[in-house]
Amino acid sequence: MGDNDSDGTFLASAAGKPAELASILAGRVTAGQYPPGTRLPGERELAATFHVSRGTVRDAIAILAQRHVVRTKWGAGTIVLDTDEASLAIETVLRQADHERGNIRELRDLVEPPMAALAARRASPSDLVTLHGIIDHTDIRMTPRESLRMDMAFHLALAESTGNPLLAALLRFVNDSAEATRAGTHSTVTRRRVSLDGHRAIFARVQAGDAPGAQQAMLDHLRAIGGMDVLGIQPQRPAGLMEPTKPMEPTKPMKPTRQARDER
Q1: C-alpha torsion 140→141→145→148, nearest 10
Q2: Contact (Cβ atoms closer than 8 angstroms) between residue 169 and residue 176
Q3: Which residue, among 107, 28, 10, 98, has the nearest Cα to 64 in the 3D structure?
């Protein structure tokens, strides 16, 4: 099998060739054929290998650079980025993005449930200790700000337990950009309890290695507290859970009626 067709056949359309070449090269980066810090072959060599024009190669490299897979340096060629560099580049782009509430909610709904499933498959014993420690140190009697800080720490630790630094970078962005939005999530004891109960349910599924269960638990958690807070809806309280109330004032004794006085 030739080098140019080891990852599939080029699209017939010339417009599709750069995207397909970029996909092939990205696959080889992932497979370790082009390790981080090394240079990709030059334009002339890539053009000859894949039987395309040098313009197609340049367009493919531009796609990879936009995806933060490589960086082109003047005089040094095209360098493959390591994971940490790619994470930092993605964080920079995300921080410049639109932070509207609806966008954040959609991002969390799309990313965090499958992320929880991945954590259930990959979390190490050390990761589980970290997650359990965060839950153990979370108290519904905390101030809203302290509770929010523990909330964000849990979600970030869950992302880090997947072993994918890009997911961790994404969750750091979510934490930073959604902090104001999520503040209301912890404004009452009921909300703090619902949030903590959600974390406990997610952790139980991750600890059990139950990927589908962890994904569903995260989805339930986001629906119960995150999404409802964005929409300004009070989260549904679990059965039997009531907001603490002030003790009732003792009632004053009633004055006896005239009839009662006559019956004495």
Answers
A1: -10
A2: no
A3: 28
Q: How many Cβ atoms from other residues are within 10 Å of residue 114's Cβ?
A: 16
Query: In this structure, what are the phi and psi dihedrals at residue 125, rounded to the nearest 5 degrees?
Result: -55, -35
Nearest CA among 184, 132, 126 for reference residue 153: 132
Q: What is the pLDDT of residue 115?
A: 96
Helix (H, G, I), strand (E, B) or coil at 79: strand
> Which residues, 6 or more positions from 261, have their beta carbon under 8 angstroms from its beta carbon?
none
By C-alpha distance, which of 117, 74, 103, 91 is closest to 178?
A: 103
Give backbone dihedrals phi and psi of 71, rounded to 5 degrees, phi first: -140, 130
Top mean-pLDDT range of 99-113, 141-155, 194-208: 194-208
3-state SS, residue 131:
helix
